[in-house]
Amino acid sequence: MSQRVLKIIQLYAPKHGDPKALAERIVRESVRQEYDPLFVAAVIKSESGFNSLARSHVGARGLMQIMPATGAYMADKLNIQKLQLYDSDQNLKLGIAFLKELEDSYGGDKVMTLVAYNWGPGHVELAGKGKRRIPGDVMRYAVKILNDYRRWRGEPSPHSAVG
Question: Is the pTM of this model over 0.90?
């Protein structure tokens, strides 16, 4: 599996640090948490382009672009004393745990998992009550990640026609 993730990193982010070490980190933490490393790699590709020092305009940080409040919430749940979102190992640990928590709360629905990861679970809850609509860019984000994930797994993509 590390070889598959390594090839993805080399294809999409050949100049970010040590691709082999990053692939091994992604696979090791994914396996430790019993989560699919290809799904994690698809999220990271979209979120940070495999750049562990990435920072978004809204303040999300690191490989998995974790917001400080989300990081603090997950760090508390995982008994992590010092939040370091630019630390690749910690960022992966927190991000994968958050993805798992979201996926569990949405009954395994990866689309809703990704919508909540990007837009926030609070917004998704409001949308579920009819008080908000999921923005098109958030749905495109989810579809893009799922298309990469399915392509890397060798599966056909049912969402490729979505803009």
Answer: yes
